[in-house]
Design goal:
The chain has 131 residues and is an alpha+beta fold. The chain has one domain (2-127). It has helices at residues 2-8, 108-120, and strands spanning 17-21, 30-36, 41-50, 55-64, 74-77, 83-91, 97-106, 124-127.
Length: 131
C-alpha cells in the first residue's frame, strides 16, 4: 500500500501526467499517462505491483504523430528517453534571425518521479517488455 500511495501522491496540478488505477484490459495495477498534444506524443507507463518481491514491473509505451499527413501514430515500447522540442525563428538584438526554443518536454519528467517514488518506498523498479 505504501508504494501505491507514493505513486498516487505524484498527481497534482503542476504535473503533466496522471497516475490512476488500471482498467482490466490494461493488464496492470496502475497506469501513468500523459498526452502532449503540442508535439503529438502520448505516453503511458503501465505498472504491475509484485508485493512478494517488493517490486514494480513497468512497461513504458509511446505513440507519436510526427507529421500531420500520417494517419496512424508511430508506436514504441520499452524505456527509451526522448526530448521533444519546438523552435521558432525570432529576430535578435543584432537584427539577425535566430532559432529560439519555444517548447521542450523530456519523457524523463514523467518516468523519473515514478521511479523515485518506487525506490523511495523501498521497492525495486524493473522494466519489462511484457506485463
Amino acid at each position: 500500500m505504501e508504494v501505491r500511495a507514493a505513486l498516487f501522491a505524484l498527481n497534482g496540478p503542476d504535473v503533466l501526467y496522471r497516475v490512476r488505477n488500471a482498467s482490466p484490459d490494461e493488464k496492470s495495477d496502475l497506469v501513468a499517462e500523459c498526452e502532449i498534444r503540442r508535439v503529438g506524443v502520448r505516453l503511458k507507463t503501465r505498472m504491475r505491483l509484485v508485493p512478494k518481491k517488493r517490486e514494480v514491473r513497468f512497461l513504458a509505451e509511446r505513440w507519436e504523430n510526427r507529421s500531420s499527413g500520417q494517419a496512424d501514430a508511430q508506436y514504441g515500447r520499452g524505456h527509451a528517453p526522448a526530448v521533444f522540442r519546438q523552435w521558432e525563428m525570432k529576430q535578435g538584438p543584432d537584427g539577425r534571425q535566430h532559432k529560439v526554443e519555444t517548447f521542450r518536454f523530456d519523457t524523463r519528467e514523467m518516468t523519473d518521479p515514478l521511479q523515485n517514488a518506487v525506490l523511495g518506498a523501498g521497492w525495486t523498479w524493473r522494466g519489462v517488455l511484457k506485463l
